[in-house]
């Protein structure tokens, strides 16, 4: 009988040890070694060591439902149901889907709670039970807002809770068709490290609510906070867990609000909904164009109307500009509602290719009604407004301008041009200035008719300003400062 030496004895395979990891407490970013600054959110001192879970094999477990061919899966339980707010249905692609989880994020005071309280009231009005869970306000405070906005309904249930277990108990008792949680950062889960709003807490709370929504077929809407730069607070896994991500936008100085879809598993992501927030609640705005166009009694210099696309909806917005002499070594460049970098680029093109002396003048450019124009299609309207403000000559009445400006002064085509022209014609504008086709570059305008509106196609900025008669020499009396010492 042979005896094996210790060197050839079979060695048992040791279980893999958990590898320590480092995680950011602000955004959940993980690294294999400690760093002083998070590589995702750039926060200092937020990376700490956490023990990783041991790696092992997961045994097979019984399935909840048997796999079937996709053609045999019923879709009757996942059909759209109207939320009672048409503009929100437009953004969602048709309405609320049972079992869907929606994340609505926005700045404080923009009207998120008011909007979702109205959605819950509309759901309860049609004899479908809605549960509104508030983690930021007491039940009496929510009731006061419901009285003010007319959202008191018998089937609208209200609870003020900050514990995840209590929220799940409310869901079990009420059995709602719609669940609203205000907000996900205020709900805490017992047994999970961290405070409510932390990475671990938000992950656990969101995962539990998603599981409940899917198993019980409950439409769930979560209100989320945003950071100072406008992004959703918490880990990015929150956006991956939910089905729909909506951003609620608006200016504090304006009643106009917009809901924009950033992610939508059930519909398009290029739609926006428009709302009017007042002391009586929030109402849908089906035709918001009139809010961003000023009606002048007489022609005014320094104005031009642009046609922008918000999702798939064309909207008209007026651009206003003011050009004054500057007493500073570095003249001011102030914008409101416009992209400052694009306005600077338009100013450089006007200075270099059109001969406007703007380098020593203060420039102020803004939009009417708090509209935000960020797409390049508004470049031409900004250029026309600036040229009109410089020369002092008003833009011809009834003119809209749309087109992207290149650094060489050329005009580039924009998307959805037929929809933009149709919207301008519907609102009574008679003349549109648009870029020419790439193969038809000429300094002479080419005219055509669209819905009774005269459309002129031009190739560059200089020819456009010559066509609108905004290239006359600058009148010094118009720009001269009254101070004789200037």
TrEMBL record:
Claim: DNA repair is one of the keywords in the record: yes
Highest taxon of source: Bacteria
GO biological processes: recombinational repair
Region (Lon-protease-like): 362-486
Keywords tagged on the record: ATP-binding, DNA damage, DNA repair, DNA-binding, Hydrolase, Metal-binding, Nucleotide-binding, Stress response, Zinc, Zinc-finger
UniProt binding sites for ATP: 106-113
GO cellular component terms, A-Z: cytosol
Pfam family, one: AAA_25
Molecular function terms from GO: ATP binding; ATP-dependent DNA damage sensor activity; damaged DNA binding; hydrolase activity; zinc ion binding
Motif RadA KNRFG motif per record, residues: 263-267
Domain spans labelled RecA family profile: 77-226
CDD domains in UniProt: RadA_SMS_N (cd01121)
Free-text note regarding domains: The middle region has homology to RecA with ATPase motifs including the RadA KNRFG motif, while the C-terminus is homologous to Lon protease.
PANTHER family recorded: DNA REPAIR PROTEIN RADA (PTHR32472), DNA REPAIR PROTEIN RADA-LIKE PROTEIN (PTHR32472:SF10)
Family: Belongs to the RecA family. RadA subfamily.
Function: DNA-dependent ATPase involved in processing of recombination intermediates, plays a role in repairing DNA breaks. Stimulates the branch migration of RecA-mediated strand transfer reactions, allowing the 3' invading strand to extend heteroduplex DNA faster. Binds ssDNA in the presence of ADP but not other nucleotides, has ATPase activity that is stimulated by ssDNA and various branched DNA structures, but inhibited by SSB. Does not have RecA's homology-searching function. Plays a role in repairing double-strand DNA breaks, probably involving stabilizing or processing branched DNA or blocked replication forks.
Name of the featured protein: DNA repair protein RadA
Gene: radA
């Amino acid at each position: 009988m042979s005896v094996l030496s210790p060197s050839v004895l079979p060695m048992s395979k040791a279980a893999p040890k958990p590898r320590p990891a480092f995680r950011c407490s602000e955004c959940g970013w993980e690294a294999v070694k400690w760093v002083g600054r998070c590589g995702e959110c750039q926060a200092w001192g937020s990376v700490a060591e956490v023990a990783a879970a041991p790696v092992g094999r997961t045994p097979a477990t019984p399935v909840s439902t048997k796999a079937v061919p996709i053609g045999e899966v019923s879709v009757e339980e996942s059909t759209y149901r109207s939320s009672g707010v048409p503009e929100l249905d437009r953004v969602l692609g048709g309405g609320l889907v049972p079992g869907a989880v929606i994340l609505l994020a926005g700045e404080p005071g923009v009207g998120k709670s008011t909007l979702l309280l109205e959605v819950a009231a509309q759901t309860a009005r049609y004899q479908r039970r809605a549960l509104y869970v508030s983690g930021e306000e007491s039940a009496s405070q929510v009731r006061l807002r419901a009285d003010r906005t007319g959202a008191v309904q018998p089937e609208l249930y209200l609870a003020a809770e900050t514990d995840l277990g209590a929220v799940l108990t409310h869901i079990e008792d009420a059995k709602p068709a719609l669940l609203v949680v205000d907000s996900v950062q205020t709900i805490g889960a017992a047994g999970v490290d961290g405070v409510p709003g932390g990475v671990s807490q938000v992950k656990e709370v969101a995962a539990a609510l998603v599981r409940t929504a899917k198993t019980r077929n409950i439409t769930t809407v979560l209100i989320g906070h945003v950071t100072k730069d406008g992004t959703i607070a918490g880990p990015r896994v929150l956006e991956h867990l939910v089905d729909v991500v909506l951003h609620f936008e608006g200016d504090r100085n304006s009643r106009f609000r917009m809901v924009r879809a950033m992610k939508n598993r059930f519909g398009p992501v290029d739609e926006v909904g428009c709302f009017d927030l007042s002391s009586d609640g929030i109402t849908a705005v089906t035709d918001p164009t009139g809010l961003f166009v000023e009606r002048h009694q007489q022609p005014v210099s320094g104005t031009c109307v642009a046609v922008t696309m918000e999702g798939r909806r064309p909207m008209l917005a007026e651009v206003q500009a003011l050009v004054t002499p500057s007493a500073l070594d570095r003249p001011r460049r102030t914008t409101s509602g416009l992209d400052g970098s694009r306005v600077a680029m338009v100013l450089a093109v006007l200075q270099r290719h059109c001969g406007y002396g703007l380098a020593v003048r203060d420039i102020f450019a803004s939009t009417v009604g708090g509209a935000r124009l960020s797409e390049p299609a508004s470049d031409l309207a900004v250029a026309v407004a600036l040229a009109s403000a410089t020369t002092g000559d008003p833009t011809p009445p009834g003119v809209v301008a749309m087109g992207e400006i290149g650094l060489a002064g050329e005009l580039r085509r924009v998307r959805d041009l037929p929809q933009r022209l149709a919207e301008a014609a519907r609102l009574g504008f008679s003349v549109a200035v648009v870029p020419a086709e790439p193969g038809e570059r000429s300094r002479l305008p080419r005219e055509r008719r669209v819905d009774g509106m005269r459309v002129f196609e031009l190739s560059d900025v200089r020819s456009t300003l010559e066509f609108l008669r905004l290239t006359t020499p600058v009148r010094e009396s118009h720009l001269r400062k009254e101070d004789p010492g200037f």
